């Protein structure tokens, strides 16, 4: 797509050279024209005669608007007249607008009056872009009028967007049906509207000094789209650039950190209760086979290992230094790590930015960058990497190996992760604390675990993102191969920062996160338990081959709740065709119910469960099964669990592997039945209809994002 970038550069440079931070309407029109963004025909009139001539050339009715770099809010100044219908009205309107502007701001520079073709009809929408502190350039879309102002029905994507991503924005608002022609209205031209979104996103990407961009309103109809008003705000001062580390360098250092040949413990101690003592115990007792070098200037030996006064005294290479010393001593020790050529530092100590001591954190960041050291932390519990039996932490040791890598910014959340992993026998490849994220953050970890053969899913608790754009790039790569689950904590409103901007004021922090995490293909978990359950269950379920979900239940009440959960998770209950309906009816009593849910009723023997589950697995039109079990003496919990596992295993032996999840209602025996099923890759929960469907929904969200659904 060719754009006239030279014209835009000339306009923006002129505006900034004049010390302005906003463009006039004619300047905005020229910028839009340069990028093919549709705006009405218009011209600038310096006199009433020119206004009349322009209006007659454009064609009545027209809109008149004051043009002044000193008047940003034109309506407030009485600087807008709509529906000017003839030459006399154009002449009088010009004089009235000039008078209103002078009355509003006597010393305002007035360039003239913009005469603009009056547009309308169709559906009002808003298209804009803002500069988010986490993600940078973000493009926004929503319906105009009350729907966007009051209901905040707006959606966001990271700029630039492709045409397909732009089209997904049209479907991403709650009122999407309005655009498709609700109540007999004509549908809007979606391709043209998406094209405008794409062009806006490319404009703000090409010119990062554009901090806010609003087209409001845009009139969208079946014949196209045209923006009635444009507003462009520029950033004053230099545009900051975030540090970029090449992917190969990230991988090199992260590989050394996770698979070190030797670890130094700075602040190692023989004294129980000291952090340096706990780290040493965990490294030794955890079974790590590499070199373990205690650093303590006052000791000759710690836990049977030779102690050194400095890391510089250690013979041979060291890949990781774990810091267990007070914050004030970290800078000097970090310099010594630089002298030794240690590539990774794990900073357990607190007392940095989290306590308000930003100067000390800035100091260690400067040292690390200068000495080519990557830092994890500070203010963390350390990290675990089970394939290497590496337990570099002062917290509980952990040795249950599995395929889940987990990260958290919080130590407390980290320990909740550890406890859940142990109690559910989930097993992990890694648990990593991120703390203040002075350097290493989520995108570094994504880059490593994307290619780590010991990891098949990643779950992350995060309170913020240091570089949202780098995170999205890394997440998009990883989610093509492995699921990424995110629990985003903290919901703040950045509207106050940009209260003067329509788009900016709508860009509530959490809404931006929600939409862009979806764009990145990650699964967002609503809470800590959900994050952990998704991490446990999603990798066990096979990837579904289509959207058709069928519920088989022994209890009508469970069937209703399971149906509600299916809808809430965005899943599709299959519309059962007549031949399949007839096939199911052969196995259920006359007072049961086919259709979907398939209600076999509670009094049925094990053979009914077995026959209907087998049919659900073997019919290729069904892609996923949800089972609702009701505890009866006729079919006890373990009988149900064993027959279900057997039928599923028989299907797998034939090459049929569909997601199967189960909700078990009953007495306490259902707990053991659920454990039995879970151990056999059937995600099952007692006393809840929501959890199994939520895990299935998470699997579907990942499969859709990764383009894996049949």
Summarize the helices and strands and which ones pair or pack.
Layout: H1 5-17, H2 25-34, E1 42-45, H3 48-58, E2 62-67, E3 80-84, H4 87-104, E4 112-117, E5 123-132, E6 136-143, H5 146-149, E7 154-158, H6 163-171, H7 176-179, H8 190-206, E8 210-221, E9 224-227, E10 230-234, H9 247-258, E11 262-266, H10 275-285, E12 291-295, E13 301-302, E14 305-306, E15 320-323, H11 330-340, E16 344-347, H12 358-370, E17 374-376, E18 382-385, E19 390-393, E20 401-408, H13 411-423, E21 428-433, H14 442-451, E22 457-462, H15 468-479, E23 484-488, H16 502-506, H17 509-519, E24 523-524, H18 528-537, E25 548-553, H19 556-568, E26 572-573, H20 578-585, E27 598-599, H21 606-618, E28 624-630, H22 637-653, E29 660-665, H23 669-678, E30 683-686, H24 690-705
Parallel strand pairs: 11-12, 11-15, 15-16, 16-17, 20-21, 20-22, 22-23, 23-24, 25-26, 25-27, 25-28, 28-29, 29-30
Antiparallel strand pairs: 1-4, 2-3, 2-4, 5-6, 5-8, 6-7, 8-9, 8-10, 13-14, 18-19, 18-21
Helix pairs in contact: 1-2, 3-4, 6-8, 9-14, 11-12, 14-15, 18-24, 19-24, 21-22, 22-23
Estimate percent helicity.
Answer: 25-40%
What is the radius of gyration computed over CA atoms, rounded to a whole number of angstroms? 31 Å
Spatially, the strands of the biggest sheet line up as 19-18-21-20-22-23-24
User: What is the tally of beta strands?
Assistant: 30
Strand % is 15-25%
Mean pLDDT: 93
Largest sheet: 7 strands, mixed
Structural class: alpha/beta
List low-confidence stretches.
494-507
Count of alpha and pi helical runs: 24
Described by the principal axes of the CA atoms, the overall outline is: flat
N→C terminal distance:
32 Å
């Amino acid at each position: 797509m060719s754009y006239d970038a030279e014209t835009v550069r000339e306009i923006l440079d002129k505006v900034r050279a004049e010390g302005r931070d906003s463009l006039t309407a004619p300047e905005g029109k020229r910028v839009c024209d340069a990028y093919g963004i549709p705006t009405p025909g218009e011209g600038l009139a310096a006199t009433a005669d020119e206004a009349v001539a322009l209006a007659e050339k454009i064609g009545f009715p027209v809109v008149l608007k004051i043009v002044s770099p000193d008047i940003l809010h034109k309506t407030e100044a009485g600087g807008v007249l709509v529906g000017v219908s003839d030459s006399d009205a154009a002449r009088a309107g010009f004089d009235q607008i000039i008078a209103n502007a002078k009355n509003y701001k006597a010393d305002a520079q007035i360039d003239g009056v913009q005469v603009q073709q009056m547009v309308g009809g169709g559906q009002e929408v808003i298209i804009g872009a803002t500069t988010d502190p986490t993600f940078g350039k973000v493009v926004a879309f929503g319906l105009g009028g009350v729907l966007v102002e009051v209901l905040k029905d707006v959606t966001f994507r990271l700029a630039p967007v492709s045409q397909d991503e732009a089209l997904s924005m049209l479907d991403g608002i709650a009122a999407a049906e309005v655009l498709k022609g609700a109540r007999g209205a004509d549908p809007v031209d979606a391709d043209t509207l998406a094209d405008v979104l794409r062009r806006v996103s490319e404009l703000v990407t090409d010119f990062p000094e554009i901090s806010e961009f609003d087209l409001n309103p845009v009139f969208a109809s079946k014949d196209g789209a045209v923006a009635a008003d444009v507003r462009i705000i520029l950033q004053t001062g230099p545009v900051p650039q975030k540090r970029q580390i090449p992917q190969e360098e990230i991988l090199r250092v992260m590989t050394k950190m996770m698979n070190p040949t030797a670890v130094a413990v700075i602040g190692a101690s023989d004294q129980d209760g000291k952090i340096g003592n706990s780290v040493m115990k965990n490294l030794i007792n955890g079974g790590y086979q590499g070199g373990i070098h205690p650093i303590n200037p006052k000791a000759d030996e710690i836990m049977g290992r030779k102690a050194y006064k400095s890391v510089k005294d250690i013979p041979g290479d060291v890949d990781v230094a774990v810091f267990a010393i007070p914050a004030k001593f970290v800078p000097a020790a970090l310099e010594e790590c630089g002298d030794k050529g240690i590539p990774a530092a794990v900073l357990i100590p607190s007392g940095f930015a989290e306590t308000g001591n930003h100067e000390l954190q800035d100091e260690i960041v400067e040292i690390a960058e200068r000495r080519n050291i990557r830092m994890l932390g500070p203010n963390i519990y350390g990290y675990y990497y089970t394939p290497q039996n590496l337990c570099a932490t002062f917290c509980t040791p952990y040795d249950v190996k599995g395929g889940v890598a987990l990260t958290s910014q919080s130590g407390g959340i980290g320990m909740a992760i550890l406890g859940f992993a142990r109690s559910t026998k989930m097993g992990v490849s890694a648990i990593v604390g991120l703390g203040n994220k002075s350097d290493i953050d989520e995108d570094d970890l994504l880059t490593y675990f994307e290619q780590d053969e010991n990891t098949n899913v990643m779950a992350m608790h995060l309170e913020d993102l240091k570089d949202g754009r780098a995170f999205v790039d890394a997440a998009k790569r990883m989610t093509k191969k492995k699921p990424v689950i995110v629990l985003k904590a903290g919901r703040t409103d950045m509207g106050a920062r940009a209260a003067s901007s329509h788009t900016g004021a709508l860009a509530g922090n959490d809404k931006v996160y929600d939409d862009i995490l979806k764009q990145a293909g990650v699964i967002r978990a609503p809470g800590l338990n959900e994050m952990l359950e998704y991490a446990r269950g999603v990798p066990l379920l096979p990837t579904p081959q289509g959207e058709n979900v069928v519920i088989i239940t022994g209890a009508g009440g469970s069937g209703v709740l399971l149906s509600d959960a299916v809808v809430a998770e965005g899943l599709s209950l299959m519309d059962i065709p007549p031949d399949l309906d007839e096939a199911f009816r052969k196995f259920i009593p006359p007072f049961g119910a086919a259709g979907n849910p398939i209600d076999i009723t509670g009094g049925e023997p094990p053979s009914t469960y077995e026959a209907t589950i087998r049919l659900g697995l073997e019919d290729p039109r069904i892609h996923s099964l949800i089972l609702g079990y009701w505890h009866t003496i006729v079919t006890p919990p373990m009988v149900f669990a064993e027959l279900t596992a057997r039928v599923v295993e028989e299907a797998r032996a034939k090459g049929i592997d569909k997601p199967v999840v189960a909700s078990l209602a009953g007495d306490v025996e259902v707990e053991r039945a659920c454990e039995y099923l879970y151990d056999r890759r059937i995600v099952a929960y007692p006393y809840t209809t929501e959890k199994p469907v939520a895990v299935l929904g998470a699997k579907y969200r990942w499969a859709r994002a990764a383009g894996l659904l049949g």
